[in-house]
Batch of 3 targets.
Target 1
Amino acid sequence: MAKGYWIARIDVDDMEKYKKYIAANAAPLAEYGGKFLVRGGDRQEKEGNHRSRNVVIEFESYQKAIDCYNSPGYQAAIELRTAVSQSDTVIIEGYDGPQPGDD
């Protein structure tokens, strides 16, 4: 079964208020098994449009990623985030097929 991922790019206008969103999203992410793979960090912007913060969260399945996003707990957290940031978010299914170099 392919894993599921949230990929988010975010510009934060007020980091102190954004921290309330971070606190509020902890419970739903834990409930659905979300695991941060990328949470800010250094980056090199190479192509296209960019935002100041990048996040990748892994779930054991695509369905769990969707269910977490749609959960009442995460929907409440979104309200805190949207008041102080702009974001682009995608939920995407992982890939389990052949990789370059596989025979």
Target 2
Amino acid sequence: MGCRSRIIDAELQSRLRRSGAVLIEGPKACGKTESARQVSASELRVDADPAVAPTMEVDPARLLDGETPRLLDEWQAQPTLWNYVRHVIDERRLKGQFILTGSANSVEDVTQHSGAGRISRLRMRTMSLWESGRSQVRSA
């Protein structure tokens, strides 16, 4: 069984065309990573890749290298990545550079820029009855 189509899939693609990055927020196991993988060209599993921690100490921007849009899954495992993403978006001046996903709420403090104008926030919820095929009524 393949990945099911989700209501937010079209919105994710639309936001990638308008923003430097998209942050997909939502509860654990609601499908954020799977939806992001459908449109990403490369992926970094921030919480699982053993090269992430040492690279963060030497040259964090290297983690952002890769085909775009680049998925940064569980990005909040290295919260300082947020500011690197923001700076790369400013430098490249291109849309659709990154997709950030994570199962926990993002860490927001005074040292972290909001991402306004660069990173679009997209809220994902658990699968609706329509998405699961249990209802003929589509809800948004």
Target 3
Amino acid sequence: MTKARKVKRIVAPAEEKTICEMYEDFQLSNRIKNLSDMTIRFYEQNLVHFFRFLDDVSVATVTAIDKHVMDQYILSMKRKELKDTTINTYLRAARALLYFGMKEQHIDKFEINLIKADKQQKEPYSEGDIKKLLKKPNLRTCGFVEHRNWVMVNYLLETGNRLNTILNILVGDIDLENGMVVMTTTKNRKAQYNP
């Protein structure tokens, strides 16, 4: 019987990546994970601000990004007087990218926290506003847009569907005979049947 030889694994040091290269790897990983097009677009649209900031402070490689750089990013957004919710949206995108870089061992690990956001109370519709929204238009005198809007408002109230779900409903998805709508574009990607 021969002895099993121990094979020594040689791990090459992580290659220093540019921010652009890491972003491309990140989005490739997102596509491989089968994230929705909306999620991929979210990162695309919201990381632009982070990249602009990094360019302004002359950070070109991912190894230069640390807690101090992220604190400076937050301060730069506060100086622009962005709303807390907007800052957190931009931070969520940057955090996802940087945590990917940490997982891939391109960046030293550090924690990225969202800022505390003041919760603003949205003013509810008045009873008069609700009555206007729900009032059925005169089908003989109203235009297409008024009728369509009334139908959509009632559909939203009845189903609670998301706007993206409604926008992707096709004529073939509507079963008027049985009073059902098949929704193929949902957040959890599972087809749903709504009465």
